[in-house]
Fold:
Amino acid sequence: MFGKKKQNDHIPSDDDKGLDINGTFSPIKQEFIDEIKKITHSPADLIIKEVTESIVIAFIENLVDKRILEEHLITVVEHTEPITPTELQRILPIPRLKLTEQKKEIIYDMLAGTVIIYIDGYCEVGLANIASIQNRSLSAPENESQVIGSQVGFNESLGTNVSLVRSFIRNPNLCIEEFSVGKQTNTVFSMIYVNSIASEQNIRIVRERINNLNINDLIDSAMLAELIEDNSYSIFPQMLLTERPDRFCDGLLNGKIGIIVNGSSMAILCPTSFLEFFHSREEQNLRWQLATFIRLLRFNAVFLSIYLTPLYVASLTFHYEIIPQPLLVPLSESRAIVPFPPIIEALILELIIELLREAGARLPTKVGQTIGIVGGIVIGTAAVQAGITSNILIIIIALCALASFTTPNYMMGNVIRLLRFPIIFLAGFWGYYGIMLSLCLLIIHLLRQSSLGAPYLSPLYPPRILDWGTAIIRLPIGLLKTRATSNGTFNREVMQEKDKPQRDDVMKE
Amino acid sequence: MKSKASISPPQQINAFLIVAVICSNQVGVGVMGFQQQLYLHAKQDAWISVLVSFILAHLSAIIMIKTLELYQTKDLYEINQDVFGKLIGNFLTILYISYSGSIFFLILKMYIEVINTWVFYNLSPWFLAATLLLLLVYAFLGDFRVIVGVSFFSFVLTFFWLFSLIPPLKYANIDYLLPVFQSDILSILKGTYSMTFTIVGFEIINIIYPFIKDKKNVKRYTHLSLFATLLIYFPILLVSLVYFSGEQLSKTLWATLTMLSVVRLPFVERIDIFMICFGVIIILPNLCLYAWAVYRGINSIVKIRLATFIWPFSGLMFILSFFAKTVTQLDEVNRIFMHVGFIAVFIYPILLYFLALLRRKFRKTQVIQ
Structure:
C-alpha cells in the first residue's frame, strides 16, 4: 500500500519517550532507588523510604491505605527485620503479597497502589497490595431508574462492581477473567460469565476479540463495546450497556457474557438482541399482565416515535386523499396560516425538541427542568401563535418525543430519535413510497446485523416462538421453562415440572 | 460438482421457513389484479379455476420434491447437469436463468406501473427502478439468510392485507356467484391457465432445497405454504366476485386495488394508496428470490461471488427497465410468459423427474455390468 515509503522509515510511537522497563532491578540498594526514580520521572507523590539499613519501601502516596501501611507494614518490618524476600511472606499480615523480579510488573503494580518492599542484595522484591483508590459511594442508577426493585447502581470501581455481582450470584461457577488493555492507560477490566450457563463459543469469541485489541487508551466501557462489537459502523448498538447490577446479573444468568471496566459505571452485556434494548429490568418485578402490557406499549411507542411524523409529512405533502374529510378540516384549518411545506415545518419542530433535550441533558438537573418547561410551553405556544407551525403537528411531535423517551436504554432511545430525521426527508420527498423504502431498509439492515454472531433480530427472525414468552411478552415465572436460544446458552432448561412453585400446602385444605 | 460442503451450516435455514419463502414468492404484484383475466375465461366459476390451479400446483410440487429427494443435496441446476450432461444441462440452466430473470423483470416493471398509475403519476420510472434495485442489492449482499428474513417479514405483513377485505363485503351480492358451473370445463381450465403467472413462485423450492437443514420436513411445509397462498388468493377472489358485477370485473385491470379504495376507516380512507406503497415489502422477496435463482444458476456454471453478480445484474435490469414502456406492451409479454411459466413450472419438472428416474436406472444397470 505504501510502496513508495522507505522500509526503514521510523514512525514515531508514543512508547519512544518512555524508558526501557524490561529485565530486573539491580541488587544494589542505591541503584535500585535511582532506577525507580528515573523510570517514574520522580513524581511528587512517589515516596521511597529506607525503613532499616537494608530495607527500602517505595510507593505512590496517594494510592495506598496509610493506616495499613503504618500499622501492618512499616511497624512489622521495623520490628522483625527480615533478611530474605521469602521471609516477608511469612511475617507480613497482608493477604495480597507476592514476590517478583520483573521490573515491568513491579512498576505497573506500584502505579496501581502496591508497596514495593526491597531488601538489599536481592533482585526479587515483595509487592504488598494495600491500594486504596477513592471512589464514589454506591447510589441509585440515574439513567435506568425503576420504581420497584433494587435501587443500587454500579460505581466506577471494578472491585466494588464485581463484589456487587458476587452478592447477587453466590456461585462457584461465576467466572471472572481479568484483562488489561491500552498502551497508555493499562485499563483493567473483567470478563464475567456463569460457566455452567454461558456458551463456550461466545466466551471464546469475546476473549479473542479482547486479545486482538491493540489500542492506546481505554477510558470507558462504551468505547470497549464499540471496539469489540460485530459491526461498529451500524447505527444500532449491538452490546447492551447497563448500570444496574440486577440487570447485569439477570443477563449473566441467562447465558450472556458481561464485561466491567474499571473507571466506568456502565457494564457491557453481550450478546444482545434488538428487542432486549427495549426491555426494562422492572418488568421482571411487576405482575406479568402489567409487565406484558407495558412492554407491548413500549414496542408500539418505538414504532410510533419513528413513523408518526413522517406519516404526517407524507400525508400532507402527497396523499391528501387518504385523510377522511372530518379530519381534513381541522388539519387544513391549523395549517392554513403556516407558510412552510410540511417537511420544513416538521424539521423545525423536531430540531427544537432535540435542542430542548440536549440543553436539558447538559444543564444541571434543576436548571434542566426549568428549560424543559420554558422551552416546551413558551416556544410551543409562541410557534403556533406566530403561525410557524400547526397545532396538530405540535401534538404529533410531542407524542413522538414522549414515545421515544419510553425506551429504557439511553443509547437506543437516541438512535430511535435520530432515525426519524432521514425518514422525514424520505417522506417529504417521496411520500408513502419513501416511508416504505425506509421501512424495508430498516428491516434489511436489522436482519444483516448480529451480536457475537447471533442474529440481531432474534427471536423475531429467525422465529423462535418459545423465546417470545420472554422477549415480546412476559410469561409468569412458573411457565418459563427454557432460557432464550439467542444467547446460545449451554444449558437451556430453567425449571423442570417438579421444580415449579408448589402451593398445595394451604390451598389444599 | 458442488457437494453439501459448499453450503455452510450458518447459511442453512429451518424447513418451516419454506412457508414464508414460497408464500411470499407466490404472492407478488399479481395479487393486485389477477381477477380480470380469470373472469374473462371462467366467469363466476373463477373460484373453481383457482382451486384447480392450486391442485395442479400441489401435484407439481410433489414431483419437484421427488426429483430433489433423488439427489438430496443438489439443486435444479446440478440435477440438470447430471441428467442431461454438462452441455445440454447447462443450456437448460441458461433457459431457466432467463426464465427467472424475465419474471424478475416483469415483477419490477409491473410494480412500477402500479405505482405510476395509482400513486405518483409522474414519478419517473427510472427512480423507482433504481430505489427498488438498491434495496434488492442491500438485501442480497446480506446473503441467503437475510433474503429469507425479508421473505419472512413480508409473509407476516401480507396477511394484514386480508383484513382490508372485510369492509367491501358490505356491498357483497352473493347472487353474482350463481349459478355455479355455468362455464364449461374448458373455460374453467382456461381460467386455470391464466392463473399461471399468479401461481408461479413455488418452483423456488428447486433452488433453495440444498439450503434446508431438515430435509425430511420439506414436503410437509411446501404443501403448507401452497395452502397458505391459497388462503390469500381465494378470499380475495371470492370477495371480488361478489363485490363486482361481471361486467365491472371484466373491465377492471387492478380489481383488488379498486375494491380496496372503498375501505373507509375513521382515520384513513383510500387504503389502496397505502397498500400499494406497502407493496414494496411484498415484491421485495420476489425480486430477491428470483435474483437468487439467477445467481445460483450462474454459479453452477461459473463460480461467481455475490457482489460480482448482483451489481451487474441490477445494472442490466435497470437499463432494461427503460424499454418496455406501456401496459399494453407488458400485456403481450405477459401472455408469452404465461406459456413459458406453465412449461417451467408444470411440464418441465415432470419431464425432469422421469428422465432422472431413467438416468438412475440406467446408471444402476451400468454399475451392475
About this structure: Chain B touches chain A through 36 residues (CB under 8 Å). The domain at 14-368 of chain B is CATH 1.20.1740.10 (Amino acid/polyamine transporter I).
